[in-house]
Amino acid sequence: MLDTGDTAPAVTARNQNGTEIDVEFEAPTVVYFYPKDFTGGCTIEANEFEDALPAYRDAGVDVYGVSMDDAESHAGFADEEGLSFDLLADPDGEVARSFGLDTDEGYTDRRTFLFADGEVVATYDPELSDPSGHAREVLADAEERLER
């Protein structure tokens, strides 16, 4: 799994609108992986990132959610939950594997990565706790670590 100081992988994937997105990691960026659209913990986590999105944008931090669901599933999930950030479809697990995550079960564990200047600044394992509060924890850490 990617760790602090590792170089960001090249990431190109379709979002919930079917648009191909090339993630740039020079700007501060959060990439969070979640197991599946429409599930309890994943819905909590997505809504919390959405609620905190204005603060992320004010801090200059981009946010991407990634799961092994396809773009159509992401479109339904984003629509139902009112999500305005990009959900990247990774049905073959290529993006997850580039981060060093296991895809053998057809999904990934919940993991979050914070990047700046093309490198991993921090990693998070929200599996160890309730996903409630995770987005705010990452935001506070990003603001502290990335103070200019």
UniProtKB/TrEMBL annotation:
- Indicate the segments forming the Thioredoxin domain, all copies: 2-147
Instruction: Write one Gene Ontology MF term.
Output: thioredoxin peroxidase activity
| Entry's Gene Ontology cellular component terms | cytoplasm
Q: Which organism is it from?
A: Halobaculum gomorrense
Enzyme class at the top of the EC tree? oxidoreductase
Catalytic reaction equation(s): a hydroperoxide + [thioredoxin]-dithiol = an alcohol + [thioredoxin]-disulfide + H2O
The segment annotated Disordered runs over 125-148
Would you identify the family this protein belongs to, as annotated? Belongs to the peroxiredoxin family. BCP/PrxQ subfamily.
Q: Which SUPFAM superfamilies match?
A: Thioredoxin-like (SSF52833)
Tell me if Disulfide bond is a UniProt keyword of this record: yes
On whether Oxidoreductase is a keyword of this UniProt record, the answer is: yes
> What protein am I looking at?
thioredoxin-dependent peroxiredoxin
